[in-house]
Write a structure and sequence with these properties.
alpha+beta; four-stranded antiparallel sheet; two-stranded parallel sheet; 8 helices; 8 strands; disordered N terminus
């Protein structure tokens, strides 16, 4: 029983692992959300901005510093004082040395910012920067999802093309087998067989090229969704791939416009910050100092305490017109951002309009390509039957086969172009889910 239970457990576990590697489009998009390095970096930018804001807020709290100093006065400094100060001759001066050879001092100081205009500007800038990195993360998400979906659909198109080619190879192999029998019976000359053999080789080369492209796309998709390139994964071609991607056309969002709007807010805050720089900053400070003086020759030792509190004002009265020039540059940058926003709005609207029209064009093209494929398949089947009966030559069969292959290629091309047009439209309105 233990052996049976263990066997069933590992069988279920292995089956689960295999199923976990069968990925559809939604699974790929979800994996990219958490495992794609580009998206992870965008998410880290948001976290970094939050930590920077916390660090900036910490500067508003009281700051406590400690300093210690040991000093040996090889030559004790002196100072000139009037001799009369010590009862000497008026009008004369004497040199008096102050201090002892050894001095140890320590100071603890507390500083509290009461008002700093640049600090307020910095906090506002970090708040707006949080909006900017969030919008950039949204843009990165749309870009990665676009790349994942586009690669996924291209992979599906290659699979469709490979299925068509494999089917054509099987049909050609049957014809070649029949043709070889007819050649042996003397009913058909060798040249007819050689023509079909050339077509068979062309199909083999096409299949080899498609498989190489398939492997490249599969590896690229693994990188996008954070899978190891050597890991085994099967990307499913489910029914949802055949359906339209346009689920909610009303959910329109333009992250690019949002980003420029946030940059305009930052420009406005820079303008305010430059004006605030004209104001003084005010801080409170308090300190305690202890000096210990020693003169070993006289066995003199003395500790002296000191403490003080104060207010400090820092005010730059003239900066060489630096702020004036900064304000002029700020005004020009504001005009530049306004122009960029107007132009970008028109470009995005035009891009969405063109993509929507392209969807209609490619939808009709796909329908037409499918009808053409039905006709080409019918022509090929009829031509193949006639060839088998010996009523037509190999040239007609090869022509019908080429027509069928072209119709198959057109269907695949129309399919991928329709999916690409839908992705372009969703990307233009910021709505790739």
């Amino acid at each position: 029983m233990k052996f049976l239970f263990t066997f069933l457990f590992f069988s279920f576990f292995n089956a689960t692992v295999i199923l976990a590697q069968q990925l559809d489009l939604n699974a790929c998009l979800q994996m990219a959300d958490t495992a794609n390095p580009t998206l992870r970096n965008a998410q880290l930018d948001i976290e970094i901005n939050g930590k920077n804001r916390s660090a900036y807020l910490a500067s508003r709290l009281p700051q406590i510093t400690f300093s210690g100093d040991y000093k040996y006065n090889a030559i004790i400094p002196g100072q000139v004082v009037p001799a009369a100060f010590f009862g000497g001759t008026p009008g004369t001066f004497s040199t008096v040395q102050f201090g002892v050879p050894y001095n140890l001092s320590s100071t603890v100081q507390l500083t509290q910012i009461l008002f700093n205009p640049q600090l307020e500007y910095g906090l506002a800038a970090l708040r707006i920067n949080a909006e900017i990195v969030t919008i950039q993360e949204k843009l990165a998400t749309q870009d990665i999802k676009y790349q994942v979906a586009s690669t996924f659909f291209n992979l599906q198109a290659i699979k469709k093309q490979l299925n068509y080619v494999d089917g054509n190879i099987k049909n050609m192999d049957k014809l070649l087998l029949n043709m070889e029998s007819m050649v042996k019976q003397g009913l058909v000359i060798q040249t007819e067989l050689d023509k079909l053999t050339i077509s068979r080789l062309t199909l083999s080369n096409t299949a080899t090229s498609l498989k190489a492209t398939h492997d490249q796309l599969e590896t690229l998709l693994k990188i996008f969704i954070g899978l190891d390139m050597q890991s085994k994964a099967e990307f499913l071609a489910d029914e949802t791939v055949e359906q339209s991607l346009l689920v909610d056309n009303n959910a329109i969002s333009y992250p690019e416009i949002e980003l420029l709007s946030a940059q305009q807010k930052m420009n406005l805050e820079e303008h305010k910050g430059n004006n605030m720089a004209y104001l003084p900053s005010l801080s409170f400070y308090a300190a305690y100092n202890y000096n210990y003086n020693m003169k070993p020759e006289d066995d003199f030792r003395k500790g002296i305490e000191g403490a003080f509190i104060g207010l400090r004002v820092d005010w730059k009265l003239f900066d060489g017109l630096e702020k004036v020039h900064k304000q002029k540059a700020n005004v020009l940058n504001a005009e530049k951002l306004n122009n960029q926003k107007d132009l970008l709005s028109k470009q995005l609207e035009l891009k969405a309009m063109n993509a929507k029209r392209q969807i209609e064009v490619q939808t009709n093209a796909l329908k037409l390509s499918k009808e053409q494929l039905k006709l080409a398949q019918s022509i090929y089947d009829q031509t193949s039957s006639k060839f088998t009966l010996g009523t037509i030559g190999s040239n007609d069969l090869i022509t019908a086969d080429n027509g069928l292959q072209q119709a198959q290629t057109n269907v695949v091309a129309a399919y991928i172009q329709l999916r690409q047009a839908e992705l372009d439209y969703l990307r233009s309105i910021g709505n790739i889910k």
